[in-house]
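Quick one:
INPUT:
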């Protein structure tokens, strides 16, 4: 969400940011809307001032016993004119806000320009893809052969893009979530939170999913929305609050189910667990001072990477291009894990610095030390630490054996009762 005053003062910078996003210039149109809004508001205020003066005149006339009917008529006419001006100002204000709220965040200067993922910039590659000595299978082939992954029955219960995990695979998914939470809370200073899974419109507006991406969400009969990610309730923990500077940085994490309609995903990843309507994810959210968000972005990404390092999974980190970034982000690192069954890297985490974009939509501020009553908007960041289902896929595919089993990474064995391998009958 943008401050129209900033756009008035920086029209060229605003339009340049939109251009980098692949959008047409909008500064002049927004400034003209704002000028019309302010003109109507000024007219209403001037009429109110005139009415106040006339009211005083009426009082003086009556105190002298003189006829005030003419002035009363002018007051009545002004009352109607003021109501008209106020209604026009309110309508123009609403139209301006509606125009501003669907404009994405502007990209940071060091984000690569480009239309899509082909312009993403590779930052580093960690680990080496395994050499099995046999043709590696995809996760659903392994899981179905083990009898521990059932898409057919899930479809009968819930439809497409759902799965039922059983036995050792169900436990492995639970183990992954617990391992991730333990790592982030004990070694990276995140506080675990158990948030609601149902939220109101305002929460999704605050993080940027509404109004533009309603079709990607599930809404209930009570007009609550199922969370697409724990980013929504976690970031809204600072909604309409003024924090003390000493409270920053605020770091929170949660393991929750996530619900996504996957609108527009027809034909994409129709087999397996890559793209599901329901999946678990450990989310990381940070709230910082503006000058600290860049360093916090690097720190958060390193915290997410550490999960893959502990699991021994090969991955790479890329900076998303301007055309591939999410709506609220000004800079995003994607972490992509190697999937042998597909023979390519796939996204397993996105870590985004949103600057003050979400804070403005939520009214989230902090009070700097030594600045009296003044406040500033906080900066917010979010990242996956990690998507549990996709991590399960990566563990299965990178740990597969020629016999059709799965080797369990050493870091997960304490969560699996010491089990080091999943095989037939597990």
């Amino acid at each position: 969400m943008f401050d129209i005053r900033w756009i008035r003062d920086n029209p060229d910078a605003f339009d340049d940011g939109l251009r980098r996003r692949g959008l047409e210039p909008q500064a002049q149109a927004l400034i003209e809307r704002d000028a019309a809004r302010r003109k109507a508001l000024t007219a209403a205020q001037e009429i109110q001032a005139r009415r106040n003066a006339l009211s005083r005149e009426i009082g003086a006339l009556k105190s002298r016993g003189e006829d005030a009917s003419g002035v009363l008529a002018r007051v009545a006419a002004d009352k109607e004119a003021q109501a008209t001006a106020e209604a026009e100002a309110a309508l123009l204000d609403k139209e301006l806000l509606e125009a501003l709220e669907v404009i994405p965040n502007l990209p940071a200067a060091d984000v690569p320009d480009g239309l899509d993922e082909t312009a993403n910039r590779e930052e580093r590659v960690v680990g080496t893809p395994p050499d099995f000595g046999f043709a590696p299978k995809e996760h659903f082939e392994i899981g179905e052969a083990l009898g521990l992954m059932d898409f057919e029955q899930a479809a009968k219960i819930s439809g497409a893009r759902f799965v039922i995990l059983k036995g050792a695979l169900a436990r492995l998914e639970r183990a992954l979530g617990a391992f991730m939470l333990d790592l982030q809370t004990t070694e990276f200073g995140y506080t675990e939170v158990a948030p609601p899974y149902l939220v109101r419109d305002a929460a999704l507006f605050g993080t940027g999913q509404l109004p533009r991406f309603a079709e990607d969400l599930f809404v209930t009969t009570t007009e609550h929305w199922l969370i697409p990610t724990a980013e929504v309730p976690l970031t809204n923990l600072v909604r309409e609050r003024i924090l003390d500077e000493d409270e920053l940085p605020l770091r929170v994490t949660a393991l929750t189910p996530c619900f996504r309609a996957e609108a527009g995903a027809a034909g994409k990843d129709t087999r397996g667990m890559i793209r599901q309507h329901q999946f678990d994810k450990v989310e990381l959210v940070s709230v910082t001072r503006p000058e600290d968000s860049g360093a916090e972005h690097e720190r958060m990404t390193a915290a997410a990477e550490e999960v893959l390092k502990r699991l021994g999974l090969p991955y790479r980190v890329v900076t998303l291009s301007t055309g591939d970034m999410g709506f609220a982000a000004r800079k995003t690192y994607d972490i992509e894990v190697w999937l042998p069954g597909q023979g390519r890297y796939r996204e397993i985490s996105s870590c985004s610095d949103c600057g003050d974009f979400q804070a403005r939509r939520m009214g989230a501020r902090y009070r700097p030390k030594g600045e009296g009553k003044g406040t500033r908007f906080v900066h917010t960041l979010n990242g996956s630490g990690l998507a549990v289902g996709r991590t399960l896929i990566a563990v299965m595919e990178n740990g597969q054996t020629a016999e059709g089993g799965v080797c369990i990474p050493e870091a997960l064995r304490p969560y699996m009762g010491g089990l080091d391998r999943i095989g037939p009958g597990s």
